[in-house]
Amino acid sequence: MRQSDGADLLGANNPRRTKIGLIYVAPGDDRQTVLTAIHTQDKLGRKQVAIVLPGENKAFQSAVDFDGLKGMQGNLKAQIVFITPSGYGPAEFARQRRFPVYSSLEEYAQVIQDEDLTGEDEDQVSKKGRGIGRKRPLPPPAAIQPSPAETAQPPALPILILALLLSKAPHPSYRLMRRRRQHLLPYRQLKITARGLLVEAVR
């Protein structure tokens, strides 16, 4: 078994190489040896620990082995990632327990080069491997505009009818003025007649 940082994938001059730990498991390595290596990488402050696991190995060959590793993940700061050949066996067991799985180091290297491991979510590994993709935020739903038929308000018929009736009915002040004119009409006619007689007398 061999351990390394991310220089094998990103290069020795890449500052992000210290965020990644690589564990190359040999076919004859036992499970406890691999678990000890995982703890070592976690203490070094890795954000991701990639286990390069051959299809035929002694460390992780049954579903129970991966169940124990899943329980161990909760006590680690680093996210465990598997690089193992696709197909039934270790790759399928790891995927069923929600571990990110990549079929090759090249695939994994391409993913981490595209990601920013220095952000707030740097401890969350990408799940693009083997169909487990990182979910992108959905665009906000477009505002639904109501149709003109829905926004149109039916006319208030009782109010219209009332307004129509009031417009035809005479105002109370109009009635009062009319009555006053009827009472004053004889006086005005008399006054006009008197003036006419006075004019005729002067002439």
Q: How would you describe the oligomerization state of the chains in this entry? A: single chain
Total helices: the number is 8
Shape: elongated
Q: Which value, in Å, is the CA radius of gyration?
A: 47 Å
Secondary-structure content class: alpha/beta
Span between termini: 146 Å
Number of strands: 5
- Number of discrete domains: 2
**CATH topology heading of the largest domain:** Transcription Regulator spoIIAA
Query: Which runs of at least 5 residues are low in confidence (pLDDT < 50)?
Result: 118-128, 130-135, 197-203
Identify the CATH class of the largest domain. Alpha Beta
- Give the strand order of the largest sheet, numbering strands 1, 2, ... along the chain: 1-2-3-4-5
SSE string: EHEHEHEHEHHHH
Proportion of beta-strand residues? 5-15%
Helical percent range?
Answer: 40-55%
The largest sheet, given as strand count, sense and whether it forms a barrel, is: 5 strands, mixed
Examine the secondary-structure arrangement and name the CATH architecture of the largest domain. 2-Layer Sandwich
Mean pLDDT: 74
Structure, described:
There is one protein chain. This protein has 203 residues and is of the alpha/beta class. The termini are far apart. The chain has 2 domains: 2-131, Transcription Regulator spoIIAA (2-Layer Sandwich); 157-202. A 5-stranded mixed sheet has the order 1-2-3-4-5. The chain has 8 helices and 5 strands; from the N terminus they run E-H-E-H-E-H-E-H-E-H-H-H-H. Helix content is 45%, strand content 10%.
